[in-house]
């Protein structure tokens, strides 16, 4: 949760007052609450209310509910724009927050404007516009279900389609409702300010957010109920609103969450007013009077405001006294102490009350109040931090836990700038982190040298070591330099960093500077530099003790002076309890003393400059002066102690002594001065040593007794009462010389309290001034003059010992770096730029080519026009024949002929469309049909002549003949055989054959073009693949060229390391032993140089190719998938689509021909058959043969429709139309496919039942045919659209695939190839850095364990 808290703390870091002016703040709070009131009133009224006179008051309610905005949008008809704004704004707020979270996660600095913009958007979304936005998303969810025809919540002006987003609308509305709910919870938990930063009568701070959360819950429920229950049960909705707002008002009055009376007043007023107005609407509903509601609303506002004000005054006056409520619930207790929190009149006394209440009722909010009170009222920020630092911010109670987290972070930041102890504690944290990093670096460096010296390594392991060591080197330098920049008088840091530079990093010059600076600092501090009780000094040690209950009193951090003082090692001291260093009589109660102090203290100082005693590692007593403070840091309170050591003298000893003379812990030389040869005389009475010893002799203060010890030497004895904490201790001092007693008096009177306000310079923040400016300036000036006290040393500023052994070696390294940089650039150009460009060009050409072909084939405009022309001509021929039969025999009189003229008009329109669509299919040879005049037709009956004409002219001639017959039928004209001959033998014969053959040719043309498309696509993809292969070969040759330079570099590194391995290992072992208390045993077996492994030939070539090969493999995979998955699929779809459409559209014409010849077969025994009407010439097949041919053709087309390839061109609905169900009569219920079979069987039955069927049966059959053709036409239109969309979708998927793969290729380069190339370049740079720290000569630089000063030892001197 800490990460979430960090994000919200970035948005709401501290108290953000709108204005310092109380009047402006009152205006802001009043406008805000009135806005919420206006939005809440929108819940109570209905736009389509049935109340009498509602239309007269409708505008009134629109005006006072204007803050909700949707009434205005309804009234002025911009609801669609308003809905769009709500969606865009909510999405933008979410995106702003996500981007802010990402930036915070990467620990980058955010612009102030961006934070303010995000904060404003969250405020609008979760507070100011929470009600209208949430209501709108509930409405979108409601009306996206497609169950409503009008919107109930608005007037008739709003179309339901505005809010209907189908399933998508339900999905995103639920998502945004959830997001707004979660955001609102966190907003209410994090946006409010618990810290009372202003004592003004008007502010927005509050003690808790429970009441506001309750109000938000009520608002959220009302948003839902207003879109659900309000329309179905308006009365129940109003009653629920009354109770919910009543509960909110009561809770606000009872808890008084805001510190300001005005803010509480307005908040309570809004909720009481809402409760009252919901009741007023209920009364108006019962009375059916809209005017009553308006009058109650207008005249009730002032009385409600006065009533609320008096109620709050009464509530405040009834709060109990602070002394009578200490043990109560904290939230009740807080109401009683609120006036003291703002005034601060009780000072530390109020803090004691808070502590007592916390003991009775532990509450995190209590500790938060304590912390802010200490910081703001008592002006003791560190004490405030100590109060809150141990409180955990984990758990699900985000309302309290965020305030805990916020309080900690704020007080830490404030203490960082003001508290000396906090800065010193931070020094220890940073110093020990740097020391641990130093130790880890030395161990890693040691492993690296050992691995190379033994010749057991792999190049990948060395690469990891090189990069890690170079990275750690930079980190360690930065850590030490940052510490010294903030704490320039830290002797331990200068010594440790200086020895690191000398012994490990081969920077002797800068290392000696830092060692020298440490000595300069030590000398300067010894010359009387003024001391703060927490400043560095030569004779001063620092320790930090844990304040956690489970580890109370254990050592966390310490300085080297502390280890030297107690003769301890760092390994022994870490985690050691301070009790084990104290005299035995103090150990048992010490932990309880620390815990009680932490729990009840009203100050941060434990003690200052107090005499104290400690035991060294051998159990001897040491004397010191100690100061201690409590410091809050990280997640607990710790003790920081400054120990001023009183150096022991061989001529003076001392011991604890009980009032009865029992000697306890003593100094090391105490027995020797008494004349005893024992090391320890603990638990021996002084009377056993001196038989005549009497305490009465020491009744005078500071009385010194002179007597002989057991070896007959004169000694001086002094008994002093020393106060340590609350205890009075008797200390027995013995010495040989009275001069030691004078020293003792001076030590006893040494007191730092008279200079407690002085601070050393490193503890000051920038911009502050030293109290002892003159002496500090002199000290800094002295440092700068002697050694350039502080200068950051970069890798390129190494001393001359870090230079390469020869100029050719330096040139080899520079050449390697240059070659690798060139490799990086070349691979960038080839692998990324050219590769990506080639993919985009090749696939772009392919997609463009395919897209052009798809657009040509998908439209099939000419194909449809040709089909419609053939259908219209066949239909017209059938109608003409039926009309002729009706006139000759009276048969089929029941058949409806009213659409005769419509069919003529359709044929005219279709032949014009066919002529106009010539350009769209002119690429096919079949298009010559429109321009050719070689179409045969029969004319001039009875002297039949075979002529030739174009299709268009032939259709026009047919139309003229049909019109003459139709006009003659109306006037009962006879003698139309010539016209009938032309229509029947050309409409059913030549025109059908020509159009049918043309459709066959056109479909074959489309199939051929699809195959050509596949072949050309294959050649394009092969070309791209070959180009990628050539590119890969070029990359391989170039990488092979870089292999030699890189091998030279690695070989040189291995030789350098091998040649200096013994010296480096000795220096590292010395550092680990002396500075890190680690003894690492190594058996150093130095291998001859010729046995050192070198890099294999072409190792880098294989490494680079292995990294970039997958890029070329990925590109090849793109080409392969493009061809196999997309090009092949498009080829199959484009190949089968014209065949499928041809098969379906031909059904209409085939069924008309089937009807024609079925009729002819049925009437074959009558005198009105065609062969009897035109006995001289009968160019058509007999009816039986024609029916057989049509059956064969229809059977062949059925196999095309019922195939897997055809199914891929259909969606579920189209498949259902063809194979499952179709609207119409029973025979079409099972789809077109089975309906054709049914009609074919019906035709066969009529034609071959050997009897002439009834006229009505034939008419019924014809009507079924025509009905089926209408349904088929609808199916054809859908088939063309769906199949075209499927092909376009496949093409679109292909485009998405190509661009998606290109994007993946970019990502692979950015996150795989480029980081690899960058890491390789960085490795070479890091090799240079490592070469700089490896000694070029066998010179060993190390610091001795005793002095820790830099000493340079020549090889001859070592032996």
Keywords:
membrane, TmcB/TmcC TPR repeats domain-containing protein, disordered C terminus, alpha+beta, transmembrane helix, 1359 residues, five-stranded antiparallel β-sheet, TPR_TmcB/C
Fraction in beta strands: 5-15%
Strand order of the largest sheet: 2-1-5-4-3
* Distance separating the two termini: 61 Å
Helix content: 55-70%
How is the main sheet built?
5 strands, antiparallel
Query: Unreliable stretches, pLDDT < 50, 5 or more residues?
Result: 747-807, 1082-1095, 1338-1359
Q: Structural class of the helices, strands and pairings?
A: alpha+beta
Task: Please give the count of helices.
Answer: 44
Mean pLDDT: 78
Shape: elongated
Could you characterize what this model shows?
By secondary structure, the chain is an alpha+beta fold. It is 65% helix and 7% strand. It contains 44 helices and 14 strands. A five-stranded antiparallel β-sheet has the order 2-1-5-4-3. A five-stranded antiparallel β-sheet has the order 7-6-10-9-8. A two-stranded antiparallel ribbon has the order 11-12. Helix 9 packs antiparallel against helix 11. It is elongated and about 170 Å long. The two termini are 61 Å apart. The C terminus is likely disordered. This is TmcB/TmcC TPR repeats domain-containing protein. Keywords: Membrane, Transmembrane, Transmembrane helix. InterPro entries: TPR_TmcB/C.
